[in-house]
Amino acid sequence: MKKVTWLAFSLLLVSFTVPVREKKIWLCGDSTIAIKQTTAYPETGWGMPFVHFWDSTIQVHNLAKNGRSTKTFINEGLWQQVLDGAGEGDFVFIQFGHNDESVEKQERYTSPEQFKYNLVKFIKEARALKATPVLFTPVSRRKFNDAGMALETHKTYSSLVREVAEAEHVLWIDLDSKSRALYQEFGKDNSSLLFLQLKAGEHPNYPEGKIDNTHFSELGARLIAQLVLKEIKSLNTELNNHIIVPKKK
Question: Residue 105, SS3?
Answer without folding.
Answer: coil
